[in-house]
Amino acid sequence: MSKQSSRPITEIYKATRKREGIVTKVENAGKYEAKSDIKAKNKTETKPKCEQEVAVDEDQELELLKQFDLDSKFGPCIGITRLERWERAAKHRHIPPQQVKDIILSHHEDQLYTQCLWNEYHM
What we know:
The protein has helices spanning 9-12, 35-44, 49-70, 82-91, 98-106, 111-114, and strands at residues 17-18, 23-25, 32-34. It is mainly alpha-helical. The chain starts with 8 loop residues before the first helix and ends in a 9-residue tail after the last helix.
């Protein structure tokens, strides 16, 4: 029997909107701020270029892994790691993207990269 998460579903998502354009929930903070206040903070908190590039690369890698998880031609992903799923797909000649395997192997200790998109949802 799987253990249920004690966190409410509203805390799982990074950002939500309430009354479009007026109030936005701050990431995992549980409080609301005016959208104009958030924009002002973002302007003052700019990251150096190299950190921005790393963040973009990570976002692109995670998006690629998400697309791999959502592609049903590689088989189900519940209960196995992304690498196990990649290897199973390759074994059955479904030709999974090599870039996905490279990303997984380069982040082999980070569960965000090794576990499938549905890992946090206990079924």
